[in-house]
Structure formats: structure tokens, C-alpha cells
Write a structure and sequence with these properties.
Blueprint: H1 7-10, H2 14-24, H3 30-44, H4 48-51, H5 54-64, H6 66-78, H7 101-114, H8 122-137, H9 151-155, H10 161-171, H11 177-195, H12 199-204, H13 210-235, H14 239-245, H15 247-257, H16 262-265, H17 269-290
Helix pairs in contact: 3-5, 3-10, 3-17, 5-10, 6-7, 8-10, 11-13, 13-14, 13-15, 14-17
């Protein structure tokens, strides 16, 4: 049964609906999908004009908002019962109301993603289709990877796929496989760290995740280890990448040693990840200058 919106929102019409959709898309996390596009374009472009190629701009726009509506919309629709006991939904994130708007927008956003396929080389097409499939299968039955410990972490490498799509769109080929592997490992650890604040509500709702299986202490260790592996693997492409990604195992160790509340630390990461993406992008732009 659909939840009745507050009176303040009932009178706002389309403005309230837009605000609701934007909250569903998690604006704080928009760059988690759009950022890899920027990084991919920075390393694929041969000159400044390539940075603003129409396909590159269109991909950035898609992964900035529509792809997030797809990813989080599917999540909210199939997590409606679990989210009733999740405190994050009370302020930072909105709750799904059981309406038809979000499912309809999810379908539209999936079709928008498919619309890029004719303009992509084969590797870009595979990456786009993999992103769309994982974005749905992560939350939706029958696979619902988010409820299978360790598979929930593994499949969240999907966050690196927008970068693969963007790189392939401009370069016509895949980025270095070690770069993809390093990015995939980074995304695995980031996802699992973000699940730590949800351990209690997930356990109360009977949801099994890597974090609920390991518990808070061992999940910190898992994240630190996977982030360290990401730094090492990415560093095999170039030492610069090892330095940038090496911040993460140090940060998680600091959080544990300083006994920082994970609910507080969790909200540092949008800023940390943005700075990391900026450093990687600047490295790509410097490469372009040296060509």
C-alpha cells in the first residue's frame, strides 16, 4: 500500500515529486558512478577536445543521474520492508513510498542505458550490459546478490564499469585489465564498508551480507585488506595509482585505531572518494599534456 506523502509535499506537486526522485537517486553518491566516467575519459582522450566529445558528455550525464535512479530505485523497491528499520532512511536517504513513479523511472533509465549500445564498441557494449544486469540483479530476485555474503561485495565491482564504458567509447578498446581489476577491488571494499552501519538493521530484518557474516571488527579487516590489494594491483599499472589508492587502507586503520563511530565515518567517504577521483583525473590530464 502506497505511503501518503506529508502535507507539505502534497501541495507542492511536481516539485515534491522531483525532490522525491532526487533523494531516491542519492545525490551524495552521484559521483560514485559518474566519477569513473570522468576518469575513463581523461585516460582515453588524446587531446582536450576528446574530453568533451558528445558521447563522453552523454555518458557522464547518464551515469550522473539516470543510472543512479536505476541502481538505487531497484534497491529501494525490493528493500521496502528492510528500510522500515534502517535509521539512514530517516534523514540522509528517503524511503520508497510504494508508488508507481520509481518503478516507471527505473524502467526508463534502463532503456536509456540500452540506447547507448549502438554507439559503443564491443567491449563498451559488454560493460554497459554488465552494468545494467548487475544493477538489477544486485537487489532484485531471484538472484538478489545483496543477500549473499561475499557475492554482495564481489558484484559491487559494477561501480567501475561506467569507467570501462567511457574509456572504450573514446579509445575503442578496453582499459588495462589490471586497472579494471584494481578498480573492481576498490569498489568491493567500498561497498562492504558502507554495509557496516547497516549490520544491526540488516540482522533484525534477516538480511545476510558480508558485513553481517563477518561482524564489525572483521569487516574492517576485510575492507582494509581488499583496499590494500586494490592499491597493489592498480599500482602494477603505474606507481601513481598505488599511492592514490593507498590512502584507503590507512584511513580504515585510522578509523579503527581512533575508535571513530562508523556512522560518522561513513559520511566522510563521498568527499574522500571525490578527492581520489580528482587525483586520478589529474593524472590522466597530465598524461595528455605529455603526449
Amino acid at each position: 500500500m502506497a505511503e501518503t506523502p506529508p502535507r507539505s509535499e502534497q501541495g507542492n506537486g511536481s516539485t515534491a515529486a522531483l525532490a522525491y526522485v532526487l533523494r531516491t537517486s542519492r545525490p551524495r553518491f552521484w559521483l560514485y558512478l559518474a566519477g569513473p566516467v570522468v576518469v575513463g575519459v581523461a585516460y582515453a582522450a588524446d587531446d582536450p577536445a576528446g574530453l568533451f566529445a558528445p558521447l563522453a558528455v552523454a555518458l557522464f550525464a547518464y551515469f550522473l543521474v539516470p543510472a543512479n535512479v536505476l541502481l538505487y530505485g531497484v534497491n529501494d523497491v525490493f528493500d521496502v520492508d528492510v528500510d522500515q528499520v534502517n535509521p539512514k532512511k530517516d534523514d540522509r536517504e528517503g524511503r520508497y513510498r510504494g508508488d508507481r513513479l520509481v518503478p516507471a523511472l527505473v524502467a526508463v533509465c534502463a532503456l536509456l542505458g540500452l540506447a547507448f549500445v549502438p554507439f559503443l564498441p564491443p567491449v563498451g557494449t559488454v560493460a554497459m550490459l554488465a552494468f545494467l544486469a548487475l544493477a538489477v540483479a544486485y537487489s532484485a530476485p531471484p538472484l538478489r546478490f545483496k543477500t549473499v555474503p561475499f557475492l554482495d561485495s564481489l558484484t559491487n565491482g559494477l561501480y567501475v564499469l561506467p569507467g570501462v564504458v567511457a574509456f572504450a567509447a573514446l579509445a575503442g578498446q578496453s582499459p588495462p585489465i589490471l586497472a579494471v581489476a584494481g578498480g573492481w577491488l576498490w569498489a568491493m571494499a567500498m561497498h562492504t564498508f558502507s554495509a557496516i552501519p547497516d549490520i544491526v538493521p540488516d540482522r533484525e530484518a534477516g538480511i545476510r551480507t558480508t558485513a553481517t557474516a563477518l561482524g564489525e571488527g572483521r569487516t574492517y579487516a576485510y575492507c582494509g585488506g581488499v583496499w590494500l590489494a586494490a592499491s597493489v594491483v592498480f599500482g602494477l599499472v603505474h606507481p601513481f595509482f598505488a599511492v592514490v589508492l593507498g590512502v584507503y587502507p590507512v584511513l580504515v586503520a585510522g578509523i579503527v585505531l581512533a575508535d571513530v563511530d562508523v556512522h560518522r565515518a561513513y559520511w566522510w567517504f563521498p568527499a574522500v572518494n571525490t578527492l581520489t577521483g580528482m587525483a586520478l583525473t589529474l593524472g590522466g590530464l597530465w598524461r595528455m599534456v605529455q603526449l
